[in-house]
Structures are given as C-alpha cells and as structure tokens.
Specification:
Radius of gyration: 25 Å
Strand content: 15-25%
Helix content: 25-40%
Distance between the termini: 65 Å
Number of domains: 2
Number of helices: 6
Number of strands: 8
Largest sheet: 4 strands, antiparallel
C-alpha cells in the first residue's frame, strides 16, 4: 500500500512535498495521514499531466485558460525583469540629484520617513532598488542617467 501511495505521489508535477504519518487508532488499526504544507508560489500542480481544481467537495479538470493564468502568475512572481540585477551598472550611473529630490518629496508627502537619509546606497536599499549591493533594473529605469540608455 505504501508503495502504491508513493507511486501515486510521484505523478504530481511539480513534485509535491507530502509528509506521511501513521496514526494508531486502535489495536491493529492505523490511519495514514498525508499532509502538504502551504507553500506560496508553487502551484499550479498537475496530476498525470492534467491540471485539476477544487470545486466544492469535488475535483474537476481545470480549464486551460485558468491553468495558463496560474502558470504566468507563478513565473512572474519569481523572475520579474525589474527585480533582477542590472548589468554593469554602479551608483555613478544613477542620477544622485533625482534620487535625493524623490526622497525629499516623499518625506514632504509623508510617504517616506525622515530617517530615509541622504546616502544613495542606503536609499536604494530602503526602497528595495538594490539587493545584496547590486542595483536592480528598476533603479536604472527610475534614476538612470541618459548615458546608461545610450
């Protein structure tokens, strides 16, 4: 029986993280409990190459348009262009005055805290425009000097 369950679980794509627990309910009787942790951005799943959806208490084949939408949402959440590091870009490629002006206006409008500061690297970090010291494409689009695009 456990082999059958393992074989069935192997038919999920992407592989599902299913934990199995045997719970004794009485002398000689056990229940096999299967559980799956909720993990964001891992679906949609397919079983035997087909996507399914839960409708009330039943499962039905998922319409292709819905499946395609879910696939696009999953891919977009993981690898968005604006969240990837910009190639060969450093702080000198960004318009310092425009960054400081934006921060000043953000503070005046109450959208940024007074503690945002004046250090360009710190500002980019606080605005999530730099990750692990690398400037992201979004920072270049917002604050890149014209020479970066030319």
């Amino acid at each position: 029986m456990l082999r059958d369950i393992a074989a069935m679980l192997a038919r999920f794509e992407p592989p599902a993280l299913v934990s199995q627990e045997r719970v004794r309910v009485s002398e000689g009787l056990e229940v096999l409990v299967l559980s799956v942790p909720a993990v964001a951005d891992t679906g949609p799943y397919v079983f035997d190459g087909r996507p399914y959806q839960r409708v009330g208490s039943t499962a039905s084949v998922m319409p292709q348009a819905r499946y395609e939408t879910l696939l696009l949402q999953r891919a977009h959440g993981r690898s968005r262009w604006e969240n990837t590091p910009a190639s060969d870009v450093s702080l000198r490629h960004l318009d310092r005055e425009e960054i400081l002006k934006t921060v000043r206006l953000g503070i005046e409008e109450g959208r940024l805290p007074e503690s945002t500061g004046r250090d360009i690297g710190d500002i980019l970090d606080k605005l999530s425009l730099r990750k692990n010291g690398q400037i992201l494409n979004s920072a270049v689009i917002l604050f890149g000097k014209p020479s970066v695009f030319g």
